[in-house]
Design a protein that fits this description.
The protein is an alpha/beta fold and about 250 residues long. It is about 45% helix and about 15% strand. The chain has an eight-stranded parallel β-barrel, surrounded by eight helices. The structure holds pyridoxine-5'-phosphate.
Length: about 250
């Protein structure tokens, strides 16, 4: 299971004062030292946290891989085409939202694969630039089928509903399990993320078909008290323990 650490909120703290600290590049290096398999950032259209210069600096400094989250806006897609991160995760983006609130809408009768022309165009442009494309979608079987029809290699399942309801119901976890199995059966690599914390990560990390988790807010929050390396190390340990549980069960 790959653990990609999202460092957007290191930049959120910096942008609170429009100064030069804390430095996302230093945060990425610390995350890598502590066992992150990749670094994730979201270059939003409103540049509320990560800036263009951050993505350029991270592209040069990251020793693992860079996963760039982006909306399908052509300005941002062009930046991604130039920088060529290892992976681009397409997400829906609304300026008013506090964070990415839902998965991409690939539905409707709008052309082949059901996706909007904008999303299809972004997939094509990124793929032609040699970037691996993942689509951030809700754990919904029809949406997974539409993603598969678009020819992308990977999807990231939105774990937000699970993160909001896991204390009182296991329905969202069951939906994630079904969705992960369905996506894998459709030949997609399956990632997951959003709202995962130290308290709720293990049941998700134990879903066998998942191969990548993207976790940001909880790690950066804990880094305030523990430091970045220890915050990542603790998440790494929880994820690895959950995977060990699967392999013990299988043997
Ligand atoms: N995956 C995607 C596609 C996201 O947009 C985000 C939030 O930026 C995350 C994962 C990480 O979510 P969180 O910060 O809640 O861990």
């Amino acid at each position: 299971m790959r653990l990609y650490v999202n460092i957007d909120h290191v930049a959120t703290v910096r942008e609170a004062r429009r100064t030069d600290e804390p430095d996302p590049v230093a945060a990425a290096a610390a995350a890598e030292r502590a066992g992150a398999d990749g670094i994730t950032v979201h270059l939003r259209e409103d540049r509320r946290h990560i800036q263009d210069a951050d993505v350029r600096a991270l592209r040069a400094a990251v020793r693992t891989v860079l996963n760039l989250e982006l909306g399908a806006a052509s300005e941002i897609v062009q930046i991604a085409r130039r920088l060529k991160p290892y992976q681009a995760t397409l997400v829906p983006e609304r300026r008013q939202e506090i964070t990415t609130e839902g998965g991409l809408a690939l539905g409707g009768a709008r052309g082949r694969g059901g996706a909007s022309r904008k999303i299809r165009g972004a997939i094509e442009q990124l793929t032609n630039a040699g970037v691996r494309v993942s689509l951030f979608i809700d754990p919904d079987l029809r949406t997974i089928d539409r993603a598969a029809a678009l020819g992308v290699p990977a999807v990231e399942l939105h774990t937000g509903r699970y993160a909001h309801t896991w204390r009182t119901s296991d329905a969202a976890l069951r939906a994630l399990r079904r969705a992960a199995a369905h996506a894998r059966a459709r030949g997609l690599a399956v990632h997951a993320g959003h709202g995962l914390t130290y308290a709720n990560v293990q049941p998700v990390a134990a879903i066998p078909e998942l191969e990548e988790l993207n976790i940001g807010h909880a790690i950066v929050s804990n880094a305030i008290f523990l430091g970045m390396e220890e915050a990542v190390r603790r998440m790494r340990k929880l994820v690895d323990e959950a995977r060990e549980f699967i392999s013990l069960g299988a043997s």
